Amino acid sequence: MSHNFYELLGISKQASEAEIQTAFKLLSAKESVNVKDLENATIALEILVDPSKRSIYDTWLENSVAHGIGFLNTNYKGIADDIESSIRIEQLKRQQRVLKKQVLVSYAALFIGLVLTVITIISNIQSLVSAACWIASFMLLIVGVVKLKRVKNYRAEFNVMLNSLRIGE
User: Fold this and answer.
1) What global pTM score does this model have?
2) Which of 110, 131, 133, 168 gives 20 to 30 Å between its CA and that of 51?
3) What residues make up the domain containing 141?
4) Per-residue pLDDT, 14
């Protein structure tokens, strides 16, 4: 069974948002339309008017035609759920990249602060350079601690999103 949202609504793949909504209204206004077709058309409308969801669906549609692959589900609601999962996975990947950058910045700041602190202690010079090193080292240590606290918050958010994806929320 084909699950082509464009065929269901009777529109071309290049249809604008207005054309999609008009096709949905025409289909829903038909007296002969059954409840299941109307439910499927509602799902198709939701997917096709959202650019990010439509992009994922179009990619799936091209792959299913070209390679015989597609979404895991075999009904319209399942396809919509697969698209939502794809979007959540992309959000998790973006958040994971942010988290990695934050960790690297935190460790770099801590390392540089530690090196400057050691240099300052070793040099034990009462000059402007020594004072600048002390100030810079403590500032970098503070930045490192603050960044690590932020990373902890990002990690908690990431784990919540990951757990919700695992349980299918």
Assistant:
1) 0.54
2) 168
3) 85-166
4) 92
